[in-house]
Amino acid sequence: MLRGLYLTACSSLIVLIFLCLAWELRLAPIQPGGSWLALKSLPLLAPLFGILNGRRYTYQWASMLILLYFTEGIVRATTETGMGQTLAIAETMLALTFFCASVAYARLTRPSSTQTVARPERP
């Protein structure tokens, strides 16, 4: 289960990075020849190595970062047409997949909550 969540999170993040680059440089750029909007893929590189190394803290904060891409995908899916709309739907689905996988991974790897802290006895 944990391995599947790890692989899902890693693959969806990597595919989302490439989708953002391909979208803004080749497939459906805002301006012909590409646009500076391709730089939106750079923040996705920040959590990449932490995700690949299975660091729980990275999964936690990356799940919040990915919500920006989910929001962009929803907005562009409802405002664009044609190829841009299709790519926006793909971005939304990849962001949602990453979000669910990273939250589940972080939840399953949390320290056990069954450990009790020694409390002083009451007089």
Overall description:
The chain contains five helices and no strands. The protein is mainly alpha-helical. It has one domain. Helix 1 runs antiparallel to helix 5 and helix 4 packs antiparallel against helix 5 (83-108). The longest helix has 26 residues, at 2-27. It is elongated. The relative contact order is 0.17. The chain crosses the membrane at residues 6-23, 35-52, 58-75, 87-106. This is Putative membrane protein. Keywords: Membrane, Transmembrane, Transmembrane helix. It holds the Pfam family DUF2069.
Q: How would you sum up this structure in a few lines?
A:
The protein has about 120 residues and is mostly helical. It has 5 helices and no strands. Keywords: Membrane, Transmembrane, Transmembrane helix.
What is the topology?
Layout: H1 2-27, H2 42-45, H3 48-52, H4 56-79, H5 83-108
Helix pairs in contact: 1-5, 4-5
Organism: Candidatus Accumulibacter appositus
Protein name: Putative membrane protein
InterPro entries: DUF2069_membrane (IPR018643)
Structural class: mainly alpha
Tell how many strands the DSSP assignment holds. Answer: 0
- The chain-level mean pLDDT equals 90
Fraction of helical residues: 55-70%
The coarse silhouette is elongated
User: Count of helical segments?
Assistant: 5
* Global Rg: 18 Å
Domain count: the total is: 1
Q: What distance separates the N and C termini?
A: 47 Å
Order of helices and strands: HHHHH
By oligomeric state, this entry counts as single chain
